[in-house]
Design goal:
The complex is a heterodimer. By secondary structure, chain A is mainly beta. Chain A has strands at residues 5-7, 10-13, 19-24, 31-37, 43-50, 53-56, 65-68, 75-79, 88-95, 105-106, 110-114. The N and C termini of chain B lie far apart (41 Å). Classes of the chains: A mainly beta, B mainly beta. At the A-B interface, strand 4, strand 5 and strand 10 of A face strand 5, strand 6 and strand 11 of B.
Chain lengths: 115, 114
């Protein structure tokens, strides 16, 4: 069974540009999560999808971040326009448990560098 | 607000030494508890988890953790570390009231001297 995959593994962009990160969850997992770790800080929750619906987006930092999960399969996280403080590692996770209560499986992360 | 505290930012040990990494969380309700590990160049992977039952849980690679509800703690232990245990370790909590999100501690970097 394939794990959670993320693309790209690393992205370097200039301030003001747009970047789109992609996450493919484990097949059959209805729950998909985005997390972010900025340099030296803890990993922080961004949002949670159940199928194509946003269940909880309380962790999204501001309206420059837009997450979508059309069709309830893969998800994208777009940052537009990117700022220096958006640099960090963006993790995606998926879970099959009802309500998201239980174990989440993490992807390798996308390292975003904004210069 | 819920939070997770890891007491040590960086721990350096020699091979064969015993390890204990502290973790405390602040939440009074029902929780799931996790320890995740990230080896150099690899992605986060689950080391062990506590959902219910026996508060002493055993994970992969000889790690174990003990849930002490009265102390809101979930410390990670290993009796004899190996060089290959060099990694960053994250304690995490998933609370029933906020079923979606996992709250992570800031991580403990473990360096093992061969």
């Amino acid at each position: 069974e394939a794990g959670v995959t993320q693309f790209p593994s690393h992205s370097v962009i200039e301030k003001g540009q747009t970047v789109t990160l992609r996450c493919d969850p484990i097949s059959g997992h209805d729950n998909l999560y985005w997390y972010r770790r900025v340099m030296g800080k803890e990993i922080k929750f961004l949002l949670h999808f159940v199928k194509e619906s946003k269940q909880d987006e309380s962790g999204m930092p501001n309206n420059r971040f837009l997450a979508e999960r059309t069709g309830g399969t893969y998800s994208t996280l777009k940052v537009q326009p990117a700022e220096l403080e958006d640099s960090g590692v963006y993790f995606c996770a998926s879970s099959q448990d009802i309500g998201g209560w239980g174990e989440q499986y993490f992807g390798p992360g996308t390292r975003l560098t904004v210069t | 607000a819920q939070s997770v505290s890891q007491h040590n930012h960086h721990v350096i040990l020699s091979e064969a030494a015993s390890l204990e990494l502290g973790c405390n969380y602040s939440y009074g309700g029902t929780v799931n508890l996790f320890w995740y590990v990230q080896y150099p160049g690899q992605h986060l992977q689950l080391l062990l988890k506590y959902f219910s039952g026996d508060p002493l849980v055993k994970g992969i690679k000889g790690f174990e953790a003990e849930f002490i509800k009265s102390k809101f703690s979930f410390n990670l232990r290993k009796p004899s570390v190996q060089w290959s245990d060099t990694a960053e370790y994250f304690c995490a909590v998933n609370a029933l009231s906020s079923a979606s999100k996992i709250i992570f501690g800031s991580g403990t970097r473990l360096s093992i001297r061969p």
